[in-house]
Design brief:
This protein has 17 helices and eight strands. The chain is an alpha/beta fold and about 375 residues long. An eight-stranded mixed β-sheet has the order 3-2-1-4-5-6-7-8, with helices on both faces.
Length: about 375
């Protein structure tokens, strides 16, 4: 089966590499010839490194590169069995693209969107045959991160999600099936990692360096929220937060932060601009965190219990099954533990008591405990 990929940016070229490594002929399309040239050169560099490390032999590396055809015309997708779109997060642009693709790729081709924040159902709504479209959300960098969120839209044909789940496993990926709701699994459940950290900062309880230190040392996270936002880009993180907030009809649980908005307005986008929550200029040392161990535990627990509540609510609302929720957070964003298992470990009554205390203290719906958490505490149940 020939796999088509639309968009030769970092994500698109990464998906093309994954498909080619799985043995498929691949067509990588972009309107910009320079983007295709850059993608081709980047792949050659990656393959060279893998050969040097002994992960691939030279013949295999050359075969992978030889499976990818680079194209500037959509007609190159004629006869493709699967076409994956990885372009700008704009509903109209994606709809226009897929309307062209459904005529070009043929009646049996599966069409997939790599959207991270738009409705799969809305994208498919522009098609004459929306049943063959679904979401395949890879994580960046696609060749390295194993998770793929498989997202059937409302009109997606029955069985197509299972078919693509099997294909992703054959590609060496870890697929999880997510309901077509804002943020799917990862971008929904992970919001408090940033949002609650920002609230703690805004309240003056701790600075960014202390919050990051607490999440790494007490929580075991690979990166703290502020260093991660600086890596992702504050413009990108703020845009996703705002999109999720609006998509949830302004649920206060997902409210964006004025602090982050001001950084974006100032052009302090993080590493890519040289300054964000930290000054990334060469030779500038990061501020030292406070050494208050009790404060570190309080910070970590407040953020963690909000993450747990979000995961419990996602399970309650049928966003994903229990095991897929755990896989999504450990394989998609490298959390040290699955959040539902972590809830069991901490004790569901302790989680509920903390959330009820926060809600009473702040008087905000932001801290409302999930009905499923209340029910499980009442019935003395655990997730595992």
């Amino acid at each position: 089966m020939t796999v088509g990929v639309v968009g030769a940016g970092t994500m698109g070229s990464g998906i093309a590499q994954v498909a080619a490594q799985a043995g498929h002929p691949v067509v990588l399309y972009d309107t910009r010839l320079e983007a295709l040239d850059k993608a081709k050169a980047a792949l050659a560099k990656v393959m060279g490194r893998l050969v040097e490390k002994g992960n691939l032999d030279r013949e295999e590396a050359e075969a992978i590169q030889g499976r990818i055809t680079y194209a500037t015309g959509l007609e190159a997708f004629t006869g493709s069995g699967l076409v994956i779109e990885a372009i700008v997060e704009d509903l109209q642009v994606k709809q226009d693209l897929f309307k062209q693709l459904e005529d070009i790729a043929g009646p049996d081709a599966v069409l997939a969107t790599n959207t991270s924040s738009l409705s799969v159902t809305a994208i498919g709504g522009a098609l004459s045959r929306p049943g063959r479209l679904l979401g395949l959300h890879f994580f960046n960098p696609a060749p390295l991160l194993p998770l793929v969120e498989v997202v059937p839209g409302l009109a997606t044909e029955h069985g197509l999600a299972s078919q693509l789940t099997s294909l992703m496993k054959a590609w060496g990926k870890v697929p999880v099936i997510a309901k077509d709701t804002p943020g799917f699994i990862v971008n929904r459940v992970a919001r408090p990692f940033y949002g609650e950290a920002l609230r703690i900062l805004e309240e003056g309880l701790a600075d960014a360096a202390t919050i990051d230190h607490a999440m790494r040392t007490v929580g075991g996270f690979r990166m703290g929220p502020f260093e991660l936002m600086d890596l992702i880009g504050n413009d990108v993180n703020f845009a996703v937060t705002r999109t999720v907030f609006e998509a949830f009809f302004y649920d206060p649980r997902y409210r964006p932060s004025f602090t982050q908005q001001r950084l974006v307005e100032a052009g302090w986008l993080g590493r890519k601009s040289g300054r964000g929550y930290y000054d990334h200029a060469e030779g500038v040392e990061r501020p030292a965190p406070t050494d208050d161990v009790i404060l570190h535990e309080q910070i970590c627990w407040r953020i963690l219990v909000m993450l747990i509540n979000e995961a419990v609510d996602a399970l309650y609302l049928g966003v994903a099954e229990r095991d897929d929720l755990e896989l999504a957070m450990t394989k998609g964003v490298n959390y040290p533990k699955g959040l539902l298992g972590w809830a069991d470990e901490k004790g569901l009554p302790h989680c509920l008591e903390t959330l009820e205390r926060l809600q009473a203290e702040y008087g905000e719906d932001r801290y409302r405990p999930s009905p499923l958490l209340r029910r499980m505490v009442r019935e003395g149940r655990t997730f595992f």
